[in-house]
Amino acid sequence: MYYEYWGLKKPPFDNVPDPLMYVSSHTSVENTIAETLFAIEEGNECISVIVGDVGLGKTMSLRMVIDSLDQDKYKIAFITNPDIPFIQLLREIIGQLTGKQCEERRKVDLLETFNKLLFQTVDEGRKVLIFIDEANAMSPANLESLRLLTNMQDDSRNLFTIVLAGQIELARRLEHPKRANLFQRIGTYCTIEKIESEEIVRNYIETRLSLAGAARKIFTDSAISSIWVHSESGVPRLINKICKLCLKAGETNNLHDINGGIVTQIAERFQKLSGPAMPQRKPRPRFSEGAPSNQSGDAAEKPAAVTFARKKKEPERPAPITFIQERKEPEKPAAVTFTEEEREPERPAAATLVQEEREPEKSVTVTFAQEERKVVTINDRVPQPESPPPPEEPAPVSANENEGEEVAIAKYGINVIIPPHVIEQAHSFTEEHRARLAGVLAAQTMQKHPQLTVSIGADPVMIWSDIRECILLKLRQGQESAAMQG
Fold it and tell me: pTM of the entire structure?
């Protein structure tokens, strides 16, 4: 193995959250660990948050917090992929806390099971901890459901603590004015920054080498300076990647140490790998700007790699257009001149025939669409068959875009509006009918906001699911409010 060449006992720079390789020189990580432990052990907080850019050590911080806890005092659930529906998320949490697969499927039963589990854990003299990594992938509806979950607390203390760790997108969602009720429940809010200086990077590298068994200096001063520059001034994940590849290159070339030149060659290799993807975007505007000059005969002098595909397409496009126009233009006057008397009676006959055929087709299609909408509306409102509302009423977006609650969906802020009478009618619906109604309203909201699915990589199913969860939440809140008033 490459690390044995350097006299090491194990890989020193693997990008894994190994607590045994933790270096206590990253100030913001040390502060994050200390504050999170305080929120769990002494602060009696219900929510603790850790945010930071990619590669700065959020997952390592969570592992260090868990490793520092007395395992006999806590039941711990660690969620690494929260981009799932809330019911599935709750089943995963309960499964990890109990040590067996959760069989419940309904949300009401899951909440009851979780509540019983909290008090059972308290009776055992322990506390429930829920760690959620990559929390920036959670939908706004799931964040709201977590907030409601924190209501399951004792009068004198919090029965569990949730620790959320995620990228800057999580901070934007939590700090949104619409989520003030969630933000106010956060006990500690920590931000992880880059390693502060080149000297601390030197200590970080040498300490990890020492923990792996190094007995001598491997990276020279020039190498440390080059690593500081090419790691974007102190990103731990980039430092680990560059150092690991430098050790492998040194073993391959029988080097005694790693200097700045080796580091630069390794770092430039990453730039070359990512380079071709960038220039491909730049020639496009330049090509379009120089396109008029191609008409003067310069097209053949353009680089073959750029213009080869366009050379084929440009002569092919006008060819069929010119050919079709040349054929159509002589055919039209020929037909009119040669048999005007024969074709004039044929045209109205054909027109009359087409109109007679299309008019009943249109009316049948319209009648069929209306019948389908009426059936869906009646099914959605089975509890009130006396006065089924017209199909236009459940439109989630009114004419006034400024009304309703703004939610963040696929990086856009949209207004999800449900008319009050629809919420009132939904009080008597079954859970299945409410879910069906929410699905219809979510689909109409997506039609009203087409920008949600325009961006590259947008998943219409996930977007529809997020909007549907928001609408279901509002319908349930309306039902709870009506029940309290009643």
Answer: 0.56
